Amino acid sequence: VRPLSDPRDNVCLSPMYCLIRSQLELFAATADDVKDRSARGGVSHCAVETGTIGLRCVHCASLPRGGDGDSGEYSKCAGNGGRRRRQQRALLPRGAVCYPASVRLVYQTARNWQRYHFSTCPSMPETIRTQYRELLNAKKQSRSGKDSKVYWLERLSGMGLVDTPDGGIRLRNGKFESE
């Protein structure tokens, strides 16, 4: 697991992008992450396998998952009168976890996270929401043009992220790198 943010962000990016990047982390999918993805019926342009790099909300990352959720539904089974509570995996809020199809798309994935998850995140601290609203209401932000996309690509490459031939992202040497 590695934060998406970088100490150099404030030199090259607008305050809004700095805030957004600080609310996201990169991670290599585990077997449980792959199972969670399957349980959600997640749509992806690439196969999510153990080791696939994903992007997730730092506030939702620690939400309990696994067999803890209880849907309250019943399914037929032997014993206990033929009825037993069926356990359902607790699912993360919409947009909390994404698996970009390429390094180039991490930027757009973060923008989509901002658009679809940020305002509905159940775990987002109010201080972050307030900071976000203040930045939205501030005058036009600088340092958020074409150069910022180049910066994103440079930082992601420096972290060791590479595209896979079948779509998806992996770590170049099997671990996050520091420049």
Which key phrases capture this entry?
179 residues; alpha+beta; four-stranded antiparallel beta sheet; two-stranded antiparallel sheet; 6 helices; 18% strand; globular
Describe this protein's structure.
The strands form 3 sheets. The protein has a 4-stranded antiparallel beta sheet. The protein has a two-stranded antiparallel ribbon with strand order 4-5. It has one domain (2-62, 91-171). It has 179 residues and is of the alpha+beta class. The protein contains 6 helices and 8 strands. The protein is globular and about 45 Å long. The protein has helices at residues 9-12, 15-22, 31-40, 106-116, 126-137, 146-158, and strands at 2-3, 24-28, 53-57, 70-76, 83-87, 97-98, 161-163, 169-171. Strand 7 (161-163) and strand 8 form a beta hairpin. Helices cover 32% and strands 18% of the residues.
Low-confidence stretches: 67-89
Rounded to the nearest angstrom, the radius of gyration is 19 Å
How is the main sheet built? 4 strands, antiparallel
Give the % helix: 25-40%
Strand order of the largest sheet: 1-2-3-6
Mean pLDDT score, rounded? Answer: 82
Protein structure class: alpha+beta
Query: Roughly what fraction of the amino acids lie in strands?
Result: 15-25%
How many DSSP H or I helices?
A: 6
DSSP E strands, number: 8
Q: What is the domain total for the residues?
A: 1
Q: What sort of overall outline do the alpha carbons produce when their principal axes are compared? A: globular
Element order, helices and strands?
EHHEHEEEEHHHEE
How far is the N terminus from the C terminus? 16 Å
